[in-house]
Every structure is written in C-alpha cells, then in structure tokens.
Task: structure prediction
Amino acid sequence: MQLYNTLSAKEREALIEEAGKERLTISFYKYAHIGNPHVLRNHLFLAWNDMDVLGRIYVAHEGINAQLSVPAENFNVFKEHLDTITFLENVRLNIAIEQDNKSFLKLKVKVRKKIVADGLNDATFDVTNKGIHVDAEKFNELIEDENTVLVDMRNHYESEIGHFKNAVTPDVDTFRDSLDIIEKDLAEHKDDKKLVMYCTGGIRCEKASAYYKHKGFKNVYQLEGGIIEYTRQVREKQLENKFLGKNFVFDHRRGERISDEVIAHCHQCGKPCDTHVNCANEACHLLFIQCEECADTMNNCCSVDCMEVHALPFEEQKRLRKGKGASNKIFKKGRSPVLKYKN
Result:
C-alpha cells in the first residue's frame, strides 16, 4: 500500500506536460477536533493519490489545512470525496484567481502538531470559538467605519506586495509573532473598536479571531475566505476592489495579480516591482523581490557571492553544501544584509 509520493518533481512535471490537461489550484481549511490525525492522513493520501491530486496538506488534532492541484476532470469526484468526511462536508473551496498546471508537483500529506503554528500553549483556548465571518460587501462597509481597526494577519513579505487600503500590516516574520504585537497595540480598544482581520484564505485570521475573543476583544470579525474569496466576490458582484497589488500565494506561482497597482520595489535596485523569486544558489534560496533587469545582471541570485557559487559546476555546488544545514536566509524571507532595499 503506497502511502508516500514516489515521483520526483521533474518526473511529475513531465507527466503533467505530456497529459496536457487542465488542472485547478484549490485551497481549503477547517478547524475541527480530530481524534487520530494519522488515520485521516493515510486515508486522504490513498484517496487523493488515485485522483492524481497534488499539493501540500497538513493534518492535526485542530483540523486540516490544504493547498492542492486537482485535475479539472476529477474535481467533482474530489468534492464528492470531501463530502463523505463529516467535518468536511460542504467545506468552502477557494479556487485560485490565476491557474497554473504546475502549482504543485508532489502530493505531501503531513501530520503536524498544529495546522497553523501559533506558539500558544493555552488549554483554555478553543480555536473553534471564532469571530464573525463577513463577505466582501460587508467587509467593504466595515473597513470604511471610523470605529474599525483593519489588521493584516500575514507576514511582512506577503503584505509588502499587496494589502487592503488603510490596513495595519505588522512587520513580522511569522504568524505567531503577530498575535502578541497586535493584542498589545490594540489593548485599549477591546471594547470600543471593531477588530477586522484578513489573510490569504482565512485560516490565520480565523485562529486569530478565536484567540482575540479569548483575550477579551468584544467585536471581532474576519474576512470569509480571505483575499482569494474576496477577489472572486468582487469580480462576480462588481463590487469596489479595495485591495492594492498582488496576493502572495504559497505555491510555485508566488503571487496572484489582484489590482494593477505595483506597491513594492525590487530589493536590489529599488525599481517598482512585485515579483518574488528564490535565489538561484540552492545553498541560499533566499526569497526576495527581483526585477527582470536585476535577474539578468545577477544571474537570478541575491548577491555576488551567490552568483559565484551558482556559476560553479553542479557537483562542486553539491560538495560545498554537503554536511551543512539549510541556510537561515530560507526562513528570513526578504530580509538580508545583501539586499540594498530590504533588510
């Protein structure tokens, strides 16, 4: 019984190209009390592997977080399977604004301690006791209210390329960093302000909404389905789009264009740009913003040192990496002394 992916990314990419069939990039999450995540993990892998589903899925006692690529022809079968799982019946599926057949190249279903790392150890904190969900139309109304504080629950490298007008965008590297910062900054407004939050697909602000309710905030709201669902509703209902720039996504696309504004800049030359790349030096792999001109000049690298390593024969690069752990730059996305316009 096969419970793990057996093909490399390159092999899977070749199969996708050969098949020439449309795939849909989908994400969903659900907070629920799961007794045995390992059993659910194996069940999902066996079922989805047969459907040619690819993606990154986390299962934990607190629920599931899934980002997937599904063959369009298998979508209905996939949805029917979800509906056979009690807590996933009729779960909202966020379908990507911009599609890419190669958004994911492997099926990875992993059991984690939590589906969203929050750094919290509070036995009295119930993640299912969430705030009020609002649709795009109500969200637009709320954020124009002078008694509303709008907070972006994403990380700095996400909000840098796109965010809602007038949103508070904490300069944080991780979700767990933002929880205490926001609570401290808004402590005096627990009773008199409406706390409205958003994130990519809703999973982070849903946990945050439950957390802030637990901490005594009286009026807590979250954007249902996050930026992805907001964009779909804005286009379908012809509402005013209050999001500026790109929505960062966690697959090979790295971003979806939501509005024409480019609000970020190249981290190497300062030119307006909102294209995220990873440094071509595999020993670095730093995520940063790079324009086409700098990509050409720097050979897709973040620094001269990385250019020199990247120019070496592949086997020499492997030898230099041998025995060394992953670079810290991988986890400090968009922050490095080598980047003139982003530290």
Summary: The two ends are 48 Å apart (CA to CA).
